[in-house]
Amino acid sequence: MSYTAIARKYRPETFAQVVGQDHVTATLRAAMRRGKLSHAYLFSGPRGCGKTTVARLLAKALNCTDMQDGDPCGVCATCTGIARGSFMDVLEIDAASNTGVDNVRELRDMAKLAAGEGNSRVFIIDEVHMLSKGAFNALLKILEEPPPRVFFFFATTEPNKIPRTILSRCQRFDFRLLNRDQLTERMREICAAEGAAVDDSGLRILVSLAEGSMRDGLSLLDQAIASCEGTIDEATLTALFGLVRSELYLELSEAMLAGDAARGLALVDSLAAAGQDLVVFARGLLTHFRNLMVLKVDPRLRDAVDLTPEQVAQLDPVLAHFDEGDLLAMLDRAGQHYDRIHRSTQPRILLEATVVELCQWERRVVLSDLIQRLRRLLAGGGVPGGRGQGQAVDRNRERRTAPASSEVDRTAPSATAPDSAPAPAPTSAPASAHAAADTVTGWTDFVNTVMAQNPGLASCLMTGLPDLDREAGQLTMAFEPDDAFMLKRLEEGRPDLERHVAAFFGDSLRVVLELVGTGAGPSVEQQEAVRREVAPTDRETLDRECKDDPALDRLVEMVKGEPVADAERERWQLADPPVDDPEKGSP
């Protein structure tokens, strides 16, 4: 008994039945109605999204005996013949197995023949990027000057491999992957037509596995219908396709919250004992942490994750415990571990190491928060490591609030912040550099003052070499040819510059801006010295503070603290509650 696969049985017979490619089908239908169809089209896009199907529909429309509003009827002898592949004037060619020049020359000779059964001759070449260079060259001439009523429809998943000479002779349409709603609706319609029972959890799994491809989704559905006796649900599909149950990721999340590495290892052992693919589980961790990150950023994005409302609700404790920074770090670590696991001959060992690291994950804190806590404890008679009257510090309840110049990542040695070497010892500019910064006494203070009011003007001042002659009442700034643009900007802002000079130096100084030869302007050392004084980086600011405070220096080196961007610190301040205060009690 012959059986027709679902993907073939429910292939669209008209443009209206094509799902998710309206931007293509609407244009082609309009071209058919107006008689403005091009002789060559290139359909590009991912696998299973309808490229070859649309090419066949277009071939039907060109030869249909009862075309309706640019759409083939789908039932006439011509349409049914094209659907069966028996219509002589529509020829489908697989470029993967017909790559040579001789194949294309044969096609070119066939194109010169008049249409037999229909109105037009149509050549559909699938995976056209597989043609050889010689074959493409043989195709050029006929594409440039095709015979009347001859059309070429090319389909490819890799348009970047097609020569530009071919692309320039085709109208190109890019097909898109289908979204979750489109796939779900179409699969539900087909299940109803086939009399198959499928619940929402089963549809969710099928849509997730399809990854936007209609053909892949229907092939999976076909396999599920053939294998499942009753309702197609998550449990049956998990067993059928060897998937990892979503509950296992929820269980791992609970182990992470409890800091229970033994429970995590037991989970890996149960996976191995059940014969599950550990690499699949490791890949699923990426999706799990991605879902957590999306939900943490905006709970309203629940439709963007492949989880049921009940499963999302089970993640609430994890979302409440970890913030975006932690989840991003976990996602990054999970990705690094997966990259190692799927290439390893010992995936279980590496997966166990991954799970232990995740279960021992500790929150990240801002260094200034930690310093404030230590100072309060010392002032209150406590000791570092204790809370007030000797109560233990719960490290998992550390919160990030106060802005600071460094961040502590208290995870395993391979954590996200500093992965390897300890923080460099603080360095200071050499004496010569400080001297160079003040070729004019108080120059860096002047630039700093301007920076607070006009950063653009100040950045230009940092590139010039100043010279102050009070007797002549003149401030001269020399610029090398490479910095001529900075000189021009200062000239444009001269009124503001002269106002700042008069306000700071207290004299009516004449400002002279001059362009000097290469080497006569400020040295790199001088420019860098001014920059360090006026606009230090976060790392330089931290190094400076460590230089002035040896205790802070030792702490930063011990915890490998790293600077944090101002924007992230502000987000922490807005997002997190106040720091625990021993004098007011724990929150």
Can you tell me about this structure?
The chain has helices spanning about 5-10, 20-35, 50-65, 75-85, 100-110, 135-145, 165, 180-195, 200-210, 215-225, 235-240, 245-260, 260-275, 280-295, 310-315, 315-320, 325-340, 345-360, 365-380, 430-435, 445-455, 455-460, 485-490, 495-505, 525-535, 540-550, 550-560, 565-575; strands spanning about 40-45, 90-95, 120-125, 150-155, 170-175, 365, 385, 390, 405-410, 465-470, 475-480, 510-515. It is an alpha/beta fold and about 575 residues long. It has five domains: about 5-175, P-loop containing nucleotide triphosphate hydrolases (Rossmann fold); about 180-240, Helicase, Ruva Protein, domain 3 (Orthogonal Bundle), CATH 1.10.8.60; about 245-360, Zinc Finger, Delta Prime, domain 3 (Up-down Bundle), CATH 1.20.272; about 365-420 and about 560-585, no CATH class; about 435-540, GMP Synthetase, Chain A, domain 3 (2-Layer Sandwich), CATH 3.30.300. It has a five-stranded parallel β-sheet, with helices on one face. The chain has a three-stranded mixed β-sheet with strand order 10-11-12, covered by helices on one side. It is flat, with a radius of gyration of 35 Å.
